[in-house]
Amino acid sequence: MGLPKEFTYRGHTINDLQQMSMDEFIKLLPARQRRSLTKGLSDEQRILLEQIRTSGKEAAKAVKTHCRDMIILPEMVGKTILIHSGKEFGSLTIRPEMIGHYLGEFVITNKKVVHGTPGIGASRSSMYVPLK
Prior knowledge:
This protein is of the alpha+beta class. It has one domain: CATH 3.30.860.10. It has helices at about 15-20, 20-25, 30-40, 45-55, and strands at about 10, 10-15, 65, 80-85, 90-95. The strands form 2 sheets. The protein has a 3-stranded mixed sheet, covered by helices on one side. It has a two-stranded antiparallel sheet with strand order 1-2. The longest helix is centred in the middle third of the chain and has 15 residues, at about 45-55. The model has no long low-confidence stretch (mean pLDDT about 85).
């Protein structure tokens, strides 16, 4: 049994990625993410990034956000973020494998529909459902 394989993103280790400048990192990303980041961060994304940076200096405090379109950057690895799913905040601890994806990809916005049994008077077929 060998050692566990070290994480790399396009040939770079997590430490290399964290040491890179933002411009160098952007060149490694896929086209959609690269285009989004070269346009610049929105005000909401900029605020989130500042909160993540300041929360790192304090205790392991989770940051709440509605910003689902933020791309996960190497400096976010290890942080816990509460992302809004439309109804509630879902907790997400960022791992190295998530780099380059959007935050919204990891907190689902819809639930599986589970239908109950038909009630009395729901349809003609409900006449034949045995009552308790």
